[in-house]
Amino acid sequence: MTTQQKKSSTRHGFKTGESIVYPAHGVGQIVAIDEQVVAGMSLELFVIDFEKDKMRLKVPVAKAVSIGMRKLSETDFVERALKVVQGRARVKRTMWSRRAQEYDAKINSGDLISIAEVVRDLYRAENQPEQSYSERQLYEAALDRMAREIAAVNKMSETEAVRLVEVNLAKGPKRGKTVEEDDTQEEAA
Questions:
Q1: Binning pLDDT at 50, 70 and 90, where does residue 15 land?
Q2: Helices in the chain by DSSP H: which ranges?
Q3: pTM, whole model, 2 decimals?
Q4: In 31-74, alpha helices (H)
Q5: Quick one: fold of 75-184?
Q6: Nearest-10 crossing angle of helices 112-122, 158-170
């Protein structure tokens, strides 16, 4: 298996040095486009660094779009995602294990709006009932993924991006009421 590194070049609209979103890992940066010989076949690969996870991933150029790799969202799309977190939480009355799978699929979809929906649905204000461990893990994963993309798009720190998301979450309706109070109001309507 041999490797040749190509300097600054563009493939399928992606170029070296550009930040991208990889569905299963979030925001990363293309550091190179390599050519590797695997099983006698020459493959072009994007070399993507995920600095926060201390991870390097090699993705075949030909498969990049089909696996969901995409450019960072535009600022107006980020604004739409922030509006989503201000919305009303939609909690289905299905078993937690089923909802957890759905939330996990949304987080790993790489779609900023889907991730924003998970953040909105799993957010708990100070005066609301506490989350279970698995709920908290999913919430933190979604918040981290969303904040990393917002930070990259708006050129701010991740801490500032988390704060921005939390400020927008606090603007949401009925954040001060418990889930039971919301349910009784819905049933009365």
A1: confident
A2: 75-86, 96-109, 112-122, 133-154, 158-170, 179-188
A3: 0.80
A4: none
A5: Methane Monooxygenase Hydroxylase; Chain G, domain 1 (1.20.58)
A6: 60
